[in-house]
Amino acid sequence: MRKYVAEFIGTMVLTTFGCGSAAISGGIEGTLGILGIAMAFGLSIVAMAYAIGDVSGCHINPAVSLGVFLSGGMSAKDFGGYLAAQFLGGIAGAGILYGIISCSGLGPVAETGLGQNGYGDVSYVGLSLTGAILVEILLTAVFVLTILGVTAKAKTSTVAGLVIGLTLAFVHILGIPLTGTSVNPARSFGPALLVGNGVALGQVWVFIVAPLIGAAIAAGIYKTVCRAESE
Q1: Read out DSSP for 174-195?
Q2: Rounded to an integer, what is the distance from CA 123 to the centroid of its chain?
Q3: Span 172-203, pLDDT tens digits
Q4: 228 pLDDT band (50/70/90 cuts)?
Q5: d(CA 77, CA 5)
Q6: Which residues contact 78 (CB under 8 A, 6 or more apart)?
Q7: Interhelix angle for 62-70 vs 206-221, to 10°?
Q8: The whole model's pTM is what?
């Protein structure tokens, strides 16, 4: 249960601070811009990795948990528990952000958004559905493969949190103008559920399915290429 609570807290923090940096600062053209928002997501991972990493491994992302599960790193019971905790954490984080924006002078949440993902007219560059699926698969595969690699070796375990956080920022730099960057179904589901926008909730399936596909690809690459090379 301690592991599941840790995953809930970590996902809540990631969603609140990462999505909040986008919603409160005005998005891509706002105060922080692409690099600032990307770093907010990355630094959230770094902070949580060193706060709860010893308890749960700090997945705080269903795609990461799937990659670890398919690589033989966790049981089916823990996988289910992690997923439940992460999705609940994403909803809680979006709820906190909703409350903060509602108490501010930024305007209604319908205008600021909650950092939700999107494609088509919602995408900054008008990325198509097919493009969004491909982008999320690619970015998630890179992210999860990095996690599997850096956490597998004892000599890199002390810097794993920093590497993972920087990698998350790295994939966000490319992905923010395309889809807003999900690579995390729980982080996408919470804001889409609470923003009160039918478009966001109608599109969220892409940001649940595509990252999971990307994670499965990463696990396959790790098991057949990286792990074999390490051994």
Answers
A1: HHTTTT---S-HHHHHHHHHHS
A2: 17
A3: 999 999 999 999 999 999 999 999 888 999 99
A4: low
A5: 15
A6: 3
A7: 30
A8: 0.93
